[in-house]
Design brief:
Strand content: 25-35%
Number of strands: 15
Low-confidence stretches: 412-420
Radius of gyration: 23 Å
Structural class: alpha/beta
Distance between the termini: 34 Å
Largest sheet: 6 strands, mixed
Order of helices and strands: EEEHEEHHEHEHEHEEEEEEEHHHHH
Strand order of the largest sheet: 5-4-3-6-7-8
Mean pLDDT: 86
Number of helices: 11
Length: 420
Amino acid sequence: MKTSILLDHEPVADGGFLVRALLSIEGEEVEDDRRTPLNLSLVLDRSGSMHGEKLAAARDAAVNLVKRLSLSDVVSVVAYDDEVEVVAAPDTGRAQSDLTQKIQAIGSRGMTNLSGGWLRGRDLVAQGAKEGAVNRVILLTDGHANVGITEPGKLVGLTQTAAGTGISTTTVGFGADFDEDLLKAMADAGQGATYYIEEADQAVGIFEEELEGLLSLVAQNVRVTINPGADADFVQVVHQYPNHTEGEALTLEVGDLYGREPRRIIKEFLLGPEAGIGTDADVATLSVVANVLTADGGVELHNISLPITLSPEEGGKAEPEVQREALLVEVARARQQALDARDAGDWERGHQILTQASAKAQAMGFDDLVVQEEMADLAMSAESFEDRSLSLRDIKYMKQRMYSADRSKRREIELYRRGE
């Protein structure tokens, strides 16, 4: 696991400086013979609301994932409506030659006992859970819990408790009317990922993304603690991760780290007018703690301390990579602000927010493909606000892009390009 910090700073009105610190956490390249063992439970919602295209997409995605597993990986399958059925008990591929046929035979019926299905999947994962493996429940649903535990806070609490025992949760939402807030909260608390299947043909690509990530796992339970220094006031974390405070320290629950997906976190601090005169200013100390997988298949606890000091330059200093990352998160926030304006009935304000965000991105002059694609997408969203044609699918799409940007998941954004 490698860490690095980039800093930039700019003057503020009182003569001090706003300091931005971009922390990057990267995994070492995974060797071919260090393939992470998987212990998964696929939990499929087969309730009546999943009938038709949604359930077909979920079945196809599950089959696609199963086909890409190693023969030594352990997988189980649960299907649920108001009843919960174990379609396949936990076992390796060598003992599950008919698993894909069993998945394809799952049909829709009944109500939605989401908690019952998830709990059964968790129990099956727990049977074979081991250190150094990915022990994960993958929940595929349209998210309408109406039987069993239905209170969102309690459902989120279930995944949080399981994460504390080493069992994580990924959620996959189907259709235009699933509860994205619930599934995002469950995945956040469960230290997994959340995805939105907008179109049936996206399902296979999204499961490939999830599987590639699982196979390149290099560290688990990554936490970043921010302790403000003597010369700085902590302002905010620009990216959004689950967090908690203890005194002046803020701890971010970053989750798992994969070899092909670095995590980035921008933090902002204020320095007073006198800070850094004659000596470096004490801005903050960051602590990065993680359970890192070793070459022999074991796990080591790593604790990295990163002091941040700065001698401010007159007029400030711009760091392009910090500004680019901050811009991408700001663009994501613009989508949420536009949706909030729309919810208040102010479509014109939503259109204005998106248009201004696109203009700012263009004015900053970044010419890479990611920023250019963001500007194009903002323009298309702005058109939907201007003619008030925003659909439920559009809203889900915008929220998924916000989530991916907030978690610095650049590769996931490639899966959510409008019209693809």
